[in-house]
Amino acid sequence: MEASRAALNLPSAAGRRDFRGLPVITIDPVDARDFDDAVSLSREADGWLLGVHIADVAAYVPRGSAVDIEAAARGTSVYLPDRVIPMLPESLSNGACSLAPGEDRLARSVMLRYDRNGRRLGYEIVPSIIRSAARLNYEEALLGMRGAGSGHSAADPLLADMAELSSLLDRERESRGALDLGSYEFEVRFGADGWPEEFTRASDDESHRMIENFMVEANRAVAGFCGASSLPVVYRVHGEPDRDSAQRLRADLEALGIRIPRGRITGSRDLSRILESARSSPAFTLAREAVLRSLKKAVYSESDSGHFGLGLSNYMHFTSPIRRYPDLVVHQVLSFLEATGAVPSGGPWDADVAGLAEDCSDTEQAAEDAERECMEMMALLYLYRRPGGEFKGIVSGVEDYGVFVRLADLPIDGLAPARLHNGSCIRLESLSLGESVTVEVHSVDPELRQLTLKVRRAGKDAG
Questions:
Q1: Pick from 209, 32, 55, 25: nearest CA to 135
Q2: How far apart are CA 60 and CA 96, in angstroms?
Q3: What are phi and psi of 392, to 5 degrees?
Q4: Cut 0.90: pTM above it
Q5: Which residue in 226, 303, 347, 440 has the fewest CB atoms around it within 10 Å?
Q6: Does residue 306 lie within any of the structural domains?
Q7: N- to C-terminal Cα separation, the chain
Q8: What pLDDT does 389 receive?
Q9: DSSP 411
């Protein structure tokens, strides 16, 4: 009820920078329903002015309100294959706070100025009012970036300029040693009967990278400002791997037959070189996982101790306040600072920031676990209807009782037990980690979450 009332009452736009004249667009997945970030770009005499405009959710969800308390308890939206469990009520997430095209919306804008080489010259963070000119999906944006036409003629020159700036930011990202792990997530398409019918890998192309670059730039700028202002917010931190982790990674990669450039691992640049050298290998997904295992997990913290994976000394999450509570906290704190000129304290602000950061890390982990388990269940249900079907994969584990196989086009591993290969021309003991195989679905038990496979071909014959 509180959320519905808030959605109907547009907060005052007084004191906000009016950016409705800027060429603002949103770029999201084709099936997105809430749009919490928009971008603009203008060429200037000495470079670029990038605008990252984020829905001002704090204008509708003040600290200590009933909606805020529930959002804190949820911590994040949960994205399952067949549904979304939102952090905020839909009247806000899909309504008043969503940056829909042609609608005046309240935002908090990070205006970033760059020289012609993509070096950041300065920034400002301001409350604003914007009006999105067009809603594009990633596929349309990619066409526009490549000069093929996005289907939104007014957006095409803007996309060409954005592609150029993003390319410069790619170089800067590479120069600071940021890791490029790529995206290996899957998307599910369901049939008319509600069963999973097709799995496709989520795209990781230039349009996705462009938006990621722009969001990272906004996040790092706001983190720097919050740290310099000693604001009570949570940061996104990622610690450096310890020596033992580096030694385990070296052993894991050697088991996959992947050479370590220069024979040692001393920092993020070495990890990037390893991944790049392994990218054409059938075992790349296993190498990527080995690198991920060697890294500490990114978490939320009350201290801005830097982000190893991004190669940044300042970082936080700011750009998704509709779906992540840490981002909403930042907007609430900035809103208070803008209105009063003071750092918030007392009353609803008198909270344990360290405890809040830990809670947000815990709810994020719970959401990730649920999303992964549901995706694996969808893969099991898909295979349940395909007994005897053949699928390509790679050996992901070798044990005395059989081998585990990672399917190439489905988000799941299965066991090929030795007992099914007695008398077979396939000798499991001769298979090695990362080797290509073709397997047959022997049995699927969704309730026990078990997938049993039989290896039909291996090595060059598997292709």
A1: 25
A2: 8
A3: -85, 150
A4: yes
A5: 347
A6: no
A7: 58
A8: 97
A9: S
